[in-house]
Amino acid sequence: MSEAGAIRNLGEIMAAYRGLVDAALERWLPPAGEPPRTIHEAMRYSVFAGGKRLRPLLALFGCEAVGGTLDDAMPAAVALELIHTYSLVHDDLPAMDDDDFRRGRPTCHKVYGEAIGILAGDALLTHAFQVLGDSAGVGIPAERRLQIIAEIAAAAGSAGMVGGQTMDIQAEGKALDPETLLTLHSKKTGALLRVSVRVGGLAGGADDAALACLTRYGERLGLAFQIVDDILDIEGNSAEMGKTAGSDLRKKKATYPAVFGLDASRRESIRLLEEAREAVQPLGEKGAVLAALADFVGNRRS
Amino acid sequence: MSEAGAIRNLGEIMAAYRGLVDAALERWLPPAGEPPRTIHEAMRYSVFAGGKRLRPLLALFGCEAVGGTLDDAMPAAVALELIHTYSLVHDDLPAMDDDDFRRGRPTCHKVYGEAIGILAGDALLTHAFQVLGDSAGVGIPAERRLQIIAEIAAAAGSAGMVGGQTMDIQAEGKALDPETLLTLHSKKTGALLRVSVRVGGLAGGADDAALACLTRYGERLGLAFQIVDDILDIEGNSAEMGKTAGSDLRKKKATYPAVFGLDASRRESIRLLEEAREAVQPLGEKGAVLAALADFVGNRRS
Questions:
Q1: Domain assignment of residue B301, yes or no
Q2: Residue B156 with chain A: CB contacts under 8 Å
Q3: Is residue A122 a contact partner of residue B89, using CB atoms and an 8 Å limit?
Q4: Quick one: CA torsion of B255, B260, B262, B267, rounded to 10 degrees?
Q5: Are B72 and B60 within 8 A, CB to CB?
Q6: CB hemisphere CA count around B201 (13 angstroms)
Q7: C-alpha distances out from residue B290 to A235, A252, B57, B72, B187, Å
Q8: SS3 A129
Q9: pLDDT tens digits for A127-168?
Q10: Which domain holds residue B181?
Q11: Angle at A145 between CA A144 and CA A148, to 5 degrees
């Protein structure tokens, strides 16, 4: 298949899989009418806000790339999206990034108040682990499921995502050296993206060699994703992104272009995505969707 | 053994087990010097703030009551204390209860700032599940460990503790009917106390009959604990409690004495603790420590 064909095909696959992820989220989240209603409404308001579902897609693609089924990876896919959503809800709070809009809609705490914003994030994070712990209808071995839980928690916690958010807050208004910026990025967004592909592989029964391919892919893709994000914040169109372009600059956020310059950032993202594609070549045809997704990340506009 | 003897003995057991829990927390929390330091310092500041470790003790006692060992229940004990601590850190935030002091010390966000307060809570909650998922050296079956994870998450999430906190915030300044107050209490503090005894039992290999005894005990003890808490807030000594007595009244919190009166509350707590003691009688001598703990909860001054 030509590269353009693969990418056109990828768009259809992504749309179809997003539909499956949304259906699973719908099924596994408590109903909005369940008391106390406010917390369940707030959880759903944030989850169904038009996200790209990148982390679930990485888990599902990673699972299929090693011969697993979509059902094998769906609990992890759902948990990853719940954790990603909670991190956005807490990030938007007044004490954190203080954002009123996300994806073109008022943020959770603007609609439900700050206390419910905090609690909705807490509930989403907790529910992720309930989904992972709950045994109903999952065919993969219990030991593997425990490993998936431990890996996701490690990637989301103080050594991963929360650690990156801590660094991000402490870095505001400061000039960062390149090494610190790379550590910040690898923790703040890289760790969860990387673990998404990995736990997909674990759910699909990956052996050590295949898991190493997926891990290398996830690392490269995760860093490239953040660099592209930083570039889009400078060059992007506010309407397409659903948030205000240039907000990193105004908030004096540590970004890749700020430290390395725009041209070097573009070159680095291209290099990383090339490495990501190479990393999944040993998986053969089954890894082609992951390779195509690397192109998608490089070409994204929002 | 006489009742007074059992209670004196209980004090020694509690002190010894608290020491073991603290050692496990010390071992399983990331070191304070681990970068980013601020988040790890804030996590430890809140965990090592002189808590009673009631939830870990319930898990350890519940496990021994069905013939399990302390090692079997220690991961759950640690996870429960991390979750309890995170809930206090977030509860104290300005947007929630806005408390400057807890147990006689400045609260986490007063020391580290509001953003780190939010993130430290997030990290503690996440770390709880990392401890539960991590396989190292635990002898209980993987399926049981998944059940423990699912039950703890359910008790801590929007149907349990977070749901209770949501109700609590929405109830401030309102007169609650008795049924709503009981639901609020059973979610806010009851669910985590109840699950603490249950997962101790699960870790210890309890059969259905023993688990039913522990569940009944945990339910009664959990509700009694909250009623005694409410009474202490009215009658207690601020110095002994490490927080300001009467704060529920000032914050117009929904409390048991406010709805049922002080005398009826006292009678109800005595009745519930008697039922708790009865619930563990079928477990024989091994359940005696749990029975003694019910007396301790009834007699506590802080």
A1: no
A2: 126
A3: no
A4: -110
A5: no
A6: 24
A7: 64, 55, 9, 18, 22
A8: helix
A9: 999 999 996 657 899 999 999 999 999 999 999 999 999 999
A10: 3-296
A11: 90
Give how far Cα A18 sits from Cα of A61, A132, A237, Å.
12, 19, 24
Chain centroid to CA A22: how far?
Answer: 15
- Nearest CB partner across the interface for B130, out of A141, A142, A150: A150
Q: Test B153 with A129 for CB contact under 8 angstroms.
A: yes
Do residues A294 and A277 touch, judged by C-beta distance below 8 A? Answer: yes
Which tokens hold the place of B118? 């939010």
Predicted complex ipTM: 0.95
Q: Is B36 exposed, middle or buried (0-12, 13-18, 19+ CB in 10 A)?
A: buried
Residue B302 lies inside a defined structural domain of this protein: no
Top residue of A45, A107, A118 to mutate, by most chain B CBs within 10 Å, is A118
What is the secondary structure of B57-75 as a DSSP string? Answer: HHHHHHHHHTT--HHHHHH
With 0-12 / 13-18 / 19 or more C-beta atoms within 10 angstroms meaning exposed / middle / buried, residue A5 is exposed
Q: Which of A124, A162, A183 is the best residue to mutate to test the B interface, defined by the most B CB atoms within 10 Å of its own CB?
A: A162
Residue B242 token pair:
């490490």
Under a CB-based contact definition with an 8 Å cutoff, are residues A61 and A206 in contact? no
- Domain presence at residue A199: yes
Give pLDDT tens digits along chain B (302 positions): 445 555 568 999 999 999 999 999 999 999 999 999 999 999 999 999 989 999 999 999 999 999 999 999 999 999 999 999 999 999 999 999 999 999 899 999 999 999 999 999 999 999 999 999 996 657 899 999 999 999 999 999 999 999 999 999 999 888 889 999 999 999 999 999 999 999 999 999 999 999 999 999 999 999 999 999 999 988 876 555 555 667 787 777 889 999 999 999 999 999 999 999 999 999 999 999 999 999 999 888 77
CB contact under 8 A, A143 and B142: yes
Report field, pTM of the whole predicted structure over 0.80: yes
3-state secondary structure of A64: helix
Chain B residue with Cα closest to A29? B158
Q: Does residue A302 sit within a domain?
A: no
CATH number at residue A111: 1.10.600.10
Contact A158 B30 (CB under 8 A): yes
Kindly report, residue by residue over A53-75, the tens digit of the pLDDT: 999 999 999 999 999 999 999 99
- Please state the domain count of chain A: 1
